[in-house]
Amino acid sequence: MVLRAIDTDLWVAEQPLRYFGLSIGTRMTVIRLASHELVVISPIQISEALVGELSELGPVSHIIAPNLYHYLFAADFKAAYPNATFWATSMLRAKKPELAIDQVIEDDSSSPWEGIECLFFDGFKTLGPKGPDLLDEWVFFHIASRTLILTDTAFCFDASFPLLTQLVTKVGGSYKSLSPSLLERIATTDKEPVKASAQQVLHWDFDRVVMAHGSIVERGGKQQFQRGYEQFLGHSL
Ligand SMILES: [Fe+2]
Fold first, then answer.
1. What DSSP line would sit under 153-173, residue for residue?
2. pLDDT for 134-147, tens place per residue?
3. Residues spanned by the domain of 148
């Protein structure tokens, strides 16, 4: 099986991924709406097995590239499901005009997906080869399962990852705790917009946290998120 059910109407699928030589894996999330349509967030490589399993769950109607980085497999998904709406951030549309993006997730809109809330995580950066670069990430809350869905705004690695990944993330602060990476904490010098976004995330009543890289936090995710973002939140909570 490619897909793994983690709650009612909520699945994940993972594939290996190396980043700067580290095995960090990547994960997509699938949510089934009340209409039975499927929302795919941060798609992984599509395969016959994955298509077969998805077809058992419902029609893929929404494909979301949630930030400036997690779009690599979205185009293949869109090709496989041409009737689905391909959602992305406005900056991704500008960065990759060749992508068949159907809709931009808007700042001022209420969520277009019933049962899912979304929020633009403002001002958060990572350190790329060319210096600090915005992630431009939307984060999601699946209300029914009390699950926060992040992509690159936090990581959480553990002993299930190779030793080198464990070592590096122990230094970086996202080993066995939900936290932005060291690179992100260094790159994000303007803390105010991040603080405001993190505070908004904390208004959601979540317990589980799914992120694209690392192990899912099944319980106590809100406390872990708050601790992980302490550097940005300060003591004003
Ligand atoms: Fe990522």
1. S-BBB-TTS-HHHHHHHHHHT
2. 999 999 999 999 99
3. 4-228
Does residue 18 sit within a domain? yes
CA of 59 to the centre of ligand 1 (A): 26
| End-to-end Cα, the chain, rounded Å | 42
- Per the structure, how many domains does the chain have? 1
3-state SS assignment for residue 227: helix
> 88 alpha carbon to ligand 1 midpoint, in Å?
15
Distance between Cα 135 and ligand 1 center (Å): 9
Query: 98, 120 in Cβ contact below 8 A?
Result: no
Q: Which two tokens stand for residue 75?
A: 């185009």
For residue 19, the CA-to-ligand 1 centroid distance in Å is 9
| Alpha carbon of 151 to ligand 1 centroid (Å) | 6
What CATH number should be reported for the domain holding residue 29? 3.60.15.10
Summarised one tens digit per residue, pLDDT across range 94-123 is 999 999 999 999 876 678 999 999 999 999
> By percentage, how much of the chain surpasses pLDDT 70?
98
In a domain, 62, yes or no: yes
pLDDT digits (tens, 9 = 90+) for 171-199: 988 999 999 999 899 999 999 999 999 99
Q: What is the pTM of this model?
A: 0.95
- Does a structural domain hold residue 237? no
Residue identified by tokens 């705004």 is: 153
Ligand 1 center to residue 35 CA distance, Å?
A: 29
Average pLDDT of the chain to the nearest whole number: 94
- Cα(118) to centroid of ligand 1, in Å? 18
Ligand 1 mean position, distance from CA 76 (Å): 18
Establish if 234 belongs to a structural domain: no
